Each structure stands twice: as C-alpha cells, then as structure tokens.
Amino acid sequence: MTHPAYDAEAHRRMTNNICESMRLNRTPMFDIAEQCKYPNGFWPWFYANQHVWDAFRIRAIRMALMGRKTYSARTIIEVIRWNTEIKDSDVHFKINDHFTPGLARLWMHKYGKRWPGFFKLRDSLGRDE
Q1: Model's pTM, two decimal places?
Q2: Any residues with CB less than 8 A from the CB of 48 and at least 6 apart, and which?
Q3: What is the pLDDT of residues 73-95, one digit of tens each?
C-alpha cells in the first residue's frame, strides 16, 4: 500500500472550511508567519489524525498539572506509541514522529500562556528553503 498523494485542492478546501469554522467560533486563527513555523506536511497530517493530537494534548496537560515545569514532546509520543493502541494514518509507522515538533508548537500556542516554556521550541524546522 502506498501513501496517498497530497491533494492540494482538497487541502485548500479543508483549510478554508476550518478557517471559516474558526472565524464563526471566534477562535483566533494563525497568521501565515505562524503557520510557516510548523513542519512541512503537518497540517494535512494533523487533520487526518485528530485522535493523536487529543492523546498528546491530554498527556501534556496531565504532566503540567502534576507540576512538571518542562517536558519532552518526544517522550509523550513514545508513551502513546508504546503504551496505547493509537495509530496515525501513516502506513509504515504506528505513529510518525516527524510531526512531534508541530504537536509541541500547537500545544504551546493553545496552552503556553498557562504553562509557559513547558515545551522548548526551536526556530528552525529544517525546511527546504
């Protein structure tokens, strides 16, 4: 089985729908500069794997509530990978860890005011410029 080809038009439609939903719900949208800080391919993966985000988000909040000032996003993904039956849409890996930095960045965007510095974020994502 091969990984499905990326459909740019479908992604554009999905992004427009999500942006419209965010606008209607008055959820602050990311500006273009903020979106560019995420790994290549993160958003299509994210929309296809909300269950992974939910598990990641919940485990990170648990660690923060337990008093941890900082924690490792990779550790959370490894715990999910090895201690649950959760899988992502990747056909080769149970959970592809290439998007872990994006999950950490999104978590900090959503929860960083309450738990500043919980995940250490890097400026460079190794993008092809």
Answers
A1: 0.68
A2: 88, 89
A3: 999 999 888 877 676 666 565 77
